[in-house]
Amino acid sequence: MFNQYTITNKEELTQILIAFLGEAGFDSFQEVETGLLAFAPAVEHEKWISELEQLRGKFSFVYTWEPLEDKNWNEEWERQFSPIQIGDRLYLRADFHPPNPHVEQELIITPKMAFGTGHHATTHMMCELLFEQQLAGKRVFDYGSGTGVLAILAKRLGAGQVDAVDIESWSAENTLENAARNNVQLDQVIHGTLADVPAGPDYDLILANINRNVILTTAATLYQRLVKGGTVLFSGILAADEQLLVSRLTELGFVHQETRQREDWRAFVFTRN
Hints:
The chain has about 270 residues and is of the alpha/beta class.
């Protein structure tokens, strides 16, 4: 069972609230004219109310909540999923949308509540940056795979080995399902944390579209899992946290190469010397 939390807020707060609530553990979101709908498991209702009340101490909004009837809400969310196109390079769609033969890559994604269908600004920037990498034969690690969009795209673009991990079991399952749907074989899809990823040869490219706290907490380990001369693409960072992230990663030895922006969000390219 899930609850729906209906948040009424100013438009400029929507993406900020999504960032904080996503970090707190809310499962999925829908932007509406009056603000935001947030969905989360009913069993942890007290936790969600506590998170919302804490945020109300920082931002101006009101909210109500209601239990959702027991039906296939994944199916409902899928119906709201509209295709997205990134130039003439990438088209992300659900299986019930018509194909687009005029793009370089087309991926069929069934969201199933996992964050990262491509509609979010951070996923959009990560896909753009991924197309700019030289992936042939490279070892790639998708840290926080969500729907698996980035891992699947990396494999499609010629990566040699692609591993993925997500702390949510339904995200790991969704990654596997979407990979199969796109006739892509990922090498490892792990349900767990970074510590659960088996030791092996270091990665040439790491994709980390998560959130500020997770990135800051695990950046030192990611640095150790990256080959010298390797690249990390980070996103899930709000504009207000840009300097904090760049400073911390630079202290760890990463070299800042580029910052990209879309709406209130930032994506970064770092390398290891």
